[in-house]
Amino acid sequence: MKPLADSMRPQELSEVAGQRELCGEDGILTRVLASGTIPNMIFYGPPGVGKTTVAGILAKKTDKKLYRLNGTTAGTGDIKEIVSELGTMLAPNGVLLYLDEIQYLNKKQQQSLLEFIENGEITLIASTTENPFFYVYPAIISRSTVFEFKSLEAEDVLPVIGRAVTEMERRYETRFLLDDAVRDYIASGCGGDVRKSINMVEMLCLTALPRAKDGEAAVSEADCEVVLRRGAVRHDRDGDSHYDLLSAFQKSIRGSDPDAAVYYLAKLLAGGDLASVCRRLLVVASEDVGLAYPQAVAIVNACVESAFRLGMPEARIPLAEGVVLLATAPKSNTSYMAINRAMADIESGASYDVPSHLKDTSYRGAKTLGRGGYIYPHEYENDYTPQQYLPDELVGTSYYEFGENKLESASRRYWEEVKAHRSKKKKS
Questions:
Q1: CA–CA separation, 117 vs 97, rounded Å?
Q2: Would you say the pTM of this structure is higher than 0.85?
Q3: 366: which of 55, 156, 371, 394 fits an S-S bond (Cβ 3.0–4.6 Å)?
């Protein structure tokens, strides 16, 4: 007997759950299918949202010979075998290649397809769970259209759960009782993965069968908790969705939203990634809070050290403290922008010699080389006196600009006052 998810796979775009912009009545892929011409396409999105299903539906509507390859198992020999049939009676109208998990093909394997994609002998429909702009050879992307498949909402998954229950009842001639609370639990717990929701229904119904009485079997919410425990929050630490989570985490702190920041912290910790959370917090303390509250670096570092000493689950407590502190602290990225501007100048070739009066004079012969003339600021009032520090070619360049926060505003006022008056030399 086929797995439930496989037997329920949609045969028409209109049957695909969610993805209305792509597969709805006026969706872009619906119109592509109606045109009768299938272009090169790359489907990108999380698992279980319909990429493989949609690719299969489109592939069946073409007069080209269909090949299916999976990047996890395909080798160069598989690609050569397909290429060898081009222009023969075996593939008179060309080939449509459905390539699942294209990100697992190396650069050379992807390049071997390029010539035939370009001349139209091979039409490529590829799918990937990773960002194609990071993992797919750029020349293939430039000859394809990338379509992003979004995670589904619970309301998109509920109808699928209903159909899955009906199919299980047909298979086992048993009425499975799943009340609305159970169905909602499955829909929200599957993390937008249709295939996972169907697998959950299959598992729950099968475990309910031994308790069936009078042709009915009840599925409880307690069973759901056991089957779904932690499943919806696991993620691939090297995958694209993981970096999306880290990105949302930092942007929520930067945007001063402690609620969103704590939510993404919880999701990352539930996925078991303590190290990335700690590293990102230390970055945020300097990049986004910075000089508006420089003590944040020391406090967050203490929270991170505590987290590593405690380990999970207690590590969540100091980490939450650090996250809330950063999210509610005043923000400044002035030091971050200053180093970025300086690095950009260095990378563009602005690598100039140090002014002679700033060079080391601690060795014999320094004066012979023209070294010297440095003025010691601590000998002057306010420990300051005007002096050139930038290389001659960069005089007048400004990398650091004071922020509008309380601390930097006070620093700006202080230095404006000091520099407005020529400092006198202190009395010995």
A1: 10
A2: no
A3: 371
Cα 276 from chain centroid?
A: 13
| Contact predicate 147/21, CB 8 Å | no
User: 125 is written with which tokens?
Assistant: 């429909």
pLDDT in tens, 382-406: 889 899 999 999 999 999 999 999 9
Sequence-distant (6+) residues with CB within 8 A of 135 are: 102, 103, 128
pLDDT digits (tens, 9 = 90+) for 55-91: 888 877 777 778 888 888 888 888 888 888 777 777 6
Round to whole Å and give the CA distance between 70 and 173.
Answer: 36
Between CA 34 and CA 44 the distance in angstroms is: 22
